[in-house]
């Protein structure tokens, strides 16, 4: 079997064959050999954001006369294809790579150069006409292009995540309203506590996620400051001053994001603490989702041998050996995603702290973890909403039975009217005789049926505090 046709390209290490029809070149080919750790390519948002950076840089270089109209126009058009996702299949380098992202930068440079050559009718690899380094990478370094692209990609991810969280909050609020009348047993430390409503429980979930949504919105500010124009270490070496002052504005126009050039490009090139801060916000959301997912598993447990207050929509058979078993697979998947995000936060923290001197070599670790966290959380919110909350049912009879069967909850609801000691004595008798508390209370004449029911109504048990006693 004959080998596929190849073209020869040269780099610092010498000649190397590249598939003749490949848009990538020798630098990408080396990276494909060297980096196979993650066994998956870089995140597509990062690749697309790199396209935006390259388009903005070429636009300014064209305006300044550093690229000809033909070459500059072809590079911009090819970079716009990258940004639009039309060349995603050519994002090939491994997500976990050495070199602070150089392999990613060169993958993008080579794809854009070769696509630009195609557009002009030149053969692939004709770098004398359009060069990945001399033209596509003009006045840039991996060290300013890559972290800038990462911030853009993360902003895109944050926007999608915010939309997913908002939709999830609205779904929870819908259940809050629908189930405001459903009395249930509140629990602390997994033991019977006091009465509440299912609506109140879902309202609490919605409120927690509303805080997460606000945090996400605010943390977008942390990613608007970029170091593009700083080149290698933030000093702007080899980049014209006019380019440095104009390229951020060009990128702002292309992305629609409120980007701003860092006041201190050296500092912005060295440090990655803003990614740690954003990751912490994502971890907070993950902890909220983990809590909600676990609660849904508990409240739907059984269904006959557990709490069984909720009925999750059945999604798939739960066992290969136990017929009829249905598992809470969606809450479990959401919990799994949350656990992964929490672990990513640790990786981002470590990677950011391991930057040495003028550059952090571990930005690819941060990029992989941060963009994966954003994707996981958006997917988890969407799955929880569409595959769990949609179709979720409450078993009102079960909720009422468990609430009425709890002496702790019922006596606490009556304690304000009867007094602690009297309520305690009635509960002890109900426990000893194995009879419902309501029956004992009515039999002893401690309360009328109307008063008993009034004290255990949703409006009463969810009221904020007690009514003031009338003046004597």
- Secondary structure: number of strands: 8
N/C terminus separation:
103 Å
Strand percentage lies at 5-15%
- The CATH class of the largest domain turns out to be Mainly Alpha
User: Could you describe the largest sheet, including whether it forms a barrel?
Assistant: 2 strands, antiparallel
Mean model confidence by pLDDT: 94
Instruction: Tell me the number of structural domains.
Output: 3
Q: What is the CA-atom radius of gyration, in angstroms? A: 30 Å
Global shape = elongated
Main structural class: mainly alpha
SSE order = EEHHHHHHEEHEHEHHEHHEHHHHHH
**At the fourth CATH level, what is the homologous superfamily of the largest domain?**
Fumarase/aspartase (Central domain)
What portion of residues is helical?
A: 55-70%
Which architecture of the largest domain would the CATH scheme give at its second level? Answer: Up-down Bundle
CATH topology (level 3) name of the largest domain: Fumarase C, Chain A, domain 2
Low-confidence stretches: none
Side-by-side strand order of the widest sheet: 1-2
- Count of runs of 4 or more consecutive helical residues: 18
Textual characterization of the structure:
The protein has 472 residues and is mainly α. It has three domains: 13-138, Fumarase/aspartase (N-terminal domain) (Fumarase C, Chain B, domain 1, Orthogonal Bundle), CATH 1.10.275; 151-394, Fumarase C, Chain A, domain 2; 405-460, Ribonucleotide Reductase Protein R1, domain 1, CATH 1.10.40. Helix content is 60%, strand content 7%. Helix 2 (44-63) crosses helix 6, helix 6 packs parallel to helix 12 and helix 14 packs antiparallel against helix 15 (420-433). The N and C termini lie far apart (103 Å). The model has no long low-confidence stretch (mean pLDDT 94).
């Amino acid at each position: 079997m004959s080998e596929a046709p190849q073209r020869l390209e040269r780099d610092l290490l010498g000649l190397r064959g590249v598939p003749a029809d490949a848009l990538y070149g020798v630098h990408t080919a080396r990276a494909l050999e060297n980096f196979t750790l993650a066994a998956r390519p870089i995140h597509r948002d990062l690749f697309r954001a790199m396209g935006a950076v390259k388009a903005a840089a070429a636009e300014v270089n064209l305006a300044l006369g550093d690229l000809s109209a033909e070459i500059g126009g072809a590079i911009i058009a090819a970079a716009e294809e990258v940004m639009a996702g039309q060349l995603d299949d050519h994002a090939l380098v491994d997500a976990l790579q050495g070199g602070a992202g150089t392999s990613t930068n060169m993958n993008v440079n080579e794809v854009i150069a070769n696509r630009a050559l195609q557009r002009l009718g030149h053969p692939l690899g004709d770098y004398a006409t359009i060069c990945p380094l001399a033209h596509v990478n003009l006045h840039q370094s991996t060290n300013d292009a890559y972290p800038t692209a990462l911030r853009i990609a993360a902003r895109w991810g944050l926007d999608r995540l915010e939309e997913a969280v908002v939709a999830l909050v609205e779904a929870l609020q819908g259940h809050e309203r629908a189930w405001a009348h459903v009395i249930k047993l509140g629990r602390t430390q997994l033991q019977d506590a006091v009465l509440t409503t299912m609506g109140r429980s879902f309202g609490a979930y919605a409120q927690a996620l509303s805080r997460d949504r606000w945090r996400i919105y605010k943390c977008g500010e942390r990613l608007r400051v970029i170091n593009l124009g700083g080149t290698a270490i933030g000093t702007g070496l080899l980049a014209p001053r006019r380019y440095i002052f104009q390229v951020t504005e060009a990128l702002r126009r292309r992305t629609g994001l409120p980007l701003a050039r860092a006041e201190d490009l050296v500092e912005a090139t060295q440090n990655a603490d803003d990614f740690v801060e954003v990751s912490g916000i994502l971890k907070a959301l993950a902890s909220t989702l983990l809590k909600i997912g676990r609660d849904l598993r508990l409240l739907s447990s059984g269904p006959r041998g557990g709490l069984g207050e909720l009925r999750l929509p059945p999604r798939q058979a739960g066992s290969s050996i136990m017929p009829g078993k249905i598992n809470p697979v969606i809450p479990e998947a959401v919990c799994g995603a949350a656990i992964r995000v929490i672990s990513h936060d640790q990786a981002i923290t470590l990677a950011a702290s391991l930057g040495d001197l003028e550059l952090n070599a571990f930005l690819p670790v941060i990029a992989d973890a941060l963009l994966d966290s954003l994707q996981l959380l958006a997917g988890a919110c969407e799955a929880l909403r569409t595959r769990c909350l949609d179709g979720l049912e409450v078993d009102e009879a079960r909720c009422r039975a468990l609430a009425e069967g709890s002496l702790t909850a019922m006596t606490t609801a009556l304690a304000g009217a009867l007094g602690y000691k009297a309520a305690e004595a009635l509960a002890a008798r109900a426990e000893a005789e194995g009879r419902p508390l309501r029956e004992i209370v009515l039999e002893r004449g401690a309360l009328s049926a109307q008063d008993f029911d009034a004290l255990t109504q949703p409006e009463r048990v969810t009221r904020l505090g007690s009514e003031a006693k009338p003046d004597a």
